[in-house]
Design brief:
Strand order of the largest sheet: 1-3-4-5-2-7-10-9-8-6
Largest sheet: 10 strands, antiparallel
Number of helices: 7
Distance between the termini: 40 Å
Number of strands: 10
Radius of gyration: 19 Å
Shape: globular
Length: 319
């Protein structure tokens, strides 16, 4: 991974490491919701270098329709921020599942999944200028016994300027017992009642998952180890990243669905069921109303896995 990272991305200010050490020490037992809501999260620093966005395009090239003039050529494409701002965590400090402790509630909530989120985009040039990402834990909800939903609020900006990207990110933390019970039971197959106006079929490979893990500095073992997945009850193997599904949907819309000149201003989505490497998945889209598109992913049996709504920038004048 180091060959992809500029020296600017590897800076680890001492105050950031101090914040992380405090968080690690707090995880000997599950903190209260109040502690999570008041936890001080370290700011992340990066630059919007064209290299990392280009590497993501290269990673996706074999799985999506080709790039066309439909997608604006300047600026950071929507969703590409997900391969920037890597967590500054040493390998030895990772948790047993390969994730980090920064957002974790701690034991007994040891298993993490990506539940969904909401994104708001403003123009962000690929100008290699320094950016800062600030985070806070905005909500903590007990969805059911053994399951917590932790919502992060993230603001990405040039220092001392208005945010270019605002993100709400839902992370689902489960106890090991609840996670295995959920995996064995499997997600209920939801069949979406509407036919898509546009669709694209692909089969995500383990190489795709590995390269996205590398680009996003993500060592979560559910994306990398078949043996670990089987031990967790996911007998169908490696799980496709939640953020990779986000990028695939946004890129599908930008490359093959939206008219030329359309600018994506927002995306709200929910992950409903896991998708697996080596299994067919279908990207779908249909127009809901002027400036609003529904985008979703179905799995190999037609079950709904991801569902979201894209909002276009009205200034672009394109529906």
């Amino acid at each position: 991974m180091e060959v992809f990272l500029s020296s600017a991305r590897l800076l680890r200010p001492p105050d950031r490491l101090h914040h992380l050490s405090v968080i690690y020490r707090s995880l000997s037992s599950a903190p209260s919701p109040t502690e999570l809501l008041t936890r001080q999260l370290p700011a992340l620093h990066d630059t919007f270098s064209p290299q990392h966005s280009s590497l993501l395009d290269l990673t996706l090239a074999s799985f999506l329709p080709p790039l066309t003039p439909r997608r604006p050529s300047s600026g950071l494409p929507p969703g590409h921020h997900l391969v920037y701002f890597p967590p500054p965590i040493a390998t030895a400090a990772l948790l047993p599942d390969g994730t980090d402790a920064v957002h974790s509630p701690g034991p007994p909530y040891t298993e993490r999944l990506w539940g969904g989120g909401q994104l708001s985009f403003s123009p962000a040039p690929l100008d290699s200028q320094p950016r800062i990402c600030t985070e806070r834990i905005a909500r903590v909800q007990e969805r059911q016994p053994g399951c917590l939903r932790v919502t992060l609020e993230r603001h990405i900006r040039v220092p001392n300027q208005s945010p270019e990207i605002v993100e709400l990110r839902d992370l689902v933390f489960q106890t090991a017992q609840q996670a295995r019970r959920t995996a064995r039971k499997g997600a209920r197959e939801l069949i979406y009642p509407h036919e898509p106006a546009h669709r694209h079929v692909l089969v995500p490979t383990r190489e795709l998952l590995f390269r996205f893990s590398a680009l996003s500095f993500n060592a979560h073992r559910i994306h990398l180890s078949d043996e670990y997945c089987r031990a967790q009850g996911y007998v169908r193997g490696l799980i496709v990243h939640g953020p990779l599904c986000v990028v695939l949907l946004l890129e599908f819309l930008a490359r093959a669905v939206l008219p030329k000149g359309a600018v994506i201003a927002g995306f709200e989505y929910r992950n409903l069921a896991p998708l697996h490497a080596g299994e067919e998945m279908t990207l779908c889209a249909r127009l809901l109303a002027r400036g609003r598109w529904e985008a979703w992913i179905v799995g190999p049996k037609g079950g709904l896995a991801v569902r979201g709504v894209v909002t276009l920038d009205e200034v672009s004048g394109v529906s």
